[in-house]
Please model this.
Amino acid sequence: MAPFKIIAFDADDTLWHNETLFASTQESFYRLLEPYHDRAWVEKRLYKTETKNLDLFGYGIKAFILSMIETAIELSEGRITGTEIAQLIEHGKTMLRAPVEPLPHVTETLKQLADHYTLLVITKGDLLDQEAKFARSGLDPYFQKLHVVSNKEREVYQTILDHHGVTPQQFLMVGNSLKSDILPVTELGARAVHIPYHITWQHEYVDEKTENRAYNSLAHMGHLPALIEEL
Amino acid sequence: MAPFKIIAFDADDTLWHNETLFASTQESFYRLLEPYHDRAWVEKRLYKTETKNLDLFGYGIKAFILSMIETAIELSEGRITGTEIAQLIEHGKTMLRAPVEPLPHVTETLKQLADHYTLLVITKGDLLDQEAKFARSGLDPYFQKLHVVSNKEREVYQTILDHHGVTPQQFLMVGNSLKSDILPVTELGARAVHIPYHITWQHEYVDEKTENRAYNSLAHMGHLPALIEEL
Model:
């Protein structure tokens, strides 16, 4: 039996689909700017604006809409119309209201693990949006607490461990982002399980080969209980 | 000696100036829309848009910018230009970077109280923005914890009391909003101290006469230690 007391999960693209929602809005964005620039250039500039705004705006849908509007104005040299910008805001609202669809195997796995461990969600993003998605997902009964944090650096994980009174040896983190969910956790001496999602936002990308492998990787959440038994 | 273990403070317009920052951006917004509508109508419509968007966007500066953009497009019937919208985004960024100025008497009072009580901040708003303001304010050494919440209903306060393991009798809340800081706290049977700010956002307004007075009011934070001694 593994020594874990707490198993914590990232939310977006670990418990439920998220990046697909951004990708679909970005498609509409590229179409809107087609008269001005080719797709590759728009993609590059949007990412640049998002990265530049990250310290001020943080993560989440509102930040994304604002960066899209800013990029659209820049790339059209102010020629983008009010009506077109209103469409971008509407896309954002559609994203905020979108149904939250748990990934395959997630519900059964959580149900099984919740009998033996304290389960947490640790996620970046907009506080209100993440709380609303957590409630809409129907997964909230399995979790003791949702932690919405502004970044996922090592110190943030340490604070959460202290808050729950556990050692790194008693803590396991599960997530799709090497940069946010895995590396800072293994740096603390805790275990982490990487479950990749088919799209990773450029900003979260880490070259896997350059990193040591002090973590496990799984193809999907359904394999998690068996792995935990082995650890 | 009062029986309190925890004294919690609202942040915006209680510890530091905030509404003045919004008011100054709103002035620029009214000037921008002067060619289309008179000020009173713009003010009314902006408030209507903010209220309508509250469930989706929550509180904070990003939500405010998006509601300004949406209102500007509506009221100009799409004629507002990209360049003008870019100005609104710039105003928002200026707000996000603005210095955080503690209100008079706040620093001395916190310093004095921190020796005897556990001090908390309980605030609505954007997670990243509130964390950044807390750090910029220079007040963070006096507080044990910053709680950023998506709403200030009675249940939210109950969860915080449970988290810190205190009874309502051991808890005192200090804030400028009757609706958010005072009434839900007195409903729990805890004490609250109202310190009005000279501007209150319409959404936070409660008619004081219609409410019972199970709380104390002070003109400024400097009177708080003496009041606590009396309670």
Observations:
- Chain B has a mean pLDDT of 92.
- DSSP finds nine helices and six strands in chain B.
- The beta strands of chain B are 6-9, 118-124, 145-149, 171-175, 191-194, 216-217.
- The first strand of chain B starts at residue 6 and ends at 9.
